[in-house]
Amino acid sequence: MKMNNDSVVYEFILLGLISSWDLEIVFFGIFLLAYSSIMSGNILIVVMVIFDSYLHSTPMYFLLANLSCIDMTISTVTVPKMITDFFRERKTISFWGCMAQMFLLHLLGGSEMTLLIIMAIDRYVAICKPLHYTSIMNHQMLVGFVLLSWVVGFVHTVSQMVFIVNLPFCGPNVVDNVFCDIPLVIKLACTNTYVTDLLIVAFSGLLSLICFILLLISYTVILVTVRHRSSRELSKALSTLSAHITVVILFFGPIIFIYAWPFSNFSVNKFLSVFYSVITPLLNPIIYTLRNREMKEAMIRLRSRHIISRQNF
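-> structure tokens emitted (313 positions)
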């Protein structure tokens, strides 16, 4: 992929979240605290899954650890620059830095969409076919699923970036957001981007909408299946699925709004961008730990082991 020779834009200017210096100082503290919480919360999940024998051998938590890794990376691609930009009057990013940011965001976004579908499959097998759960969701299958999620993410981002990176950019170069995002960047191209616009809607907006609908259908099928068994099983399934449904809504809601109607000038889009790059990765550890009995028990076991090891030392 080579940049078009007619391109003369070597950097983009990001307008950022707000223009008030006093508020930028406040948001600096908020985003720094949020990023620290994102990293510590998701690292805690990964550490617990690795070192707790029960979680390590449970397919759902293996997938959850991979979800945490993706969330941490999504935030790292965007949030550190957002934090440092609060102290900069002129917020710029290089041309290739902008391209790399969009490439990584859609690589990780496509991988997370696929992983959420895989987690829904895992819940379906666990709830509807419990006797065959361990044989179906074995280690080889899980590794294959995770690799598939990254392959889908790679195809998803390359299928868009191959068109965008060759667009001619000759000015203006102002992106009204806190980081580079495809809908806003292609509007700056010095050519007719109607076909590219349609491709973005298809690859991002339509794809995310279809995945969201499929996930809701799958959860509905699970609940309908369980309802015919007993009210106790239905209550247990609702408790398990409520966390997954919450994560799905938080992740897909902003993405669908941004990419299904990406070429309308909504000022709320930058706040939605912040939502799926900051708020969702921050809420995922809370949803999966504070509302999860097995995670709480694993945290207690990990803490007990740490205390015992220190006493023995």
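The chain has eleven helices and three strands.
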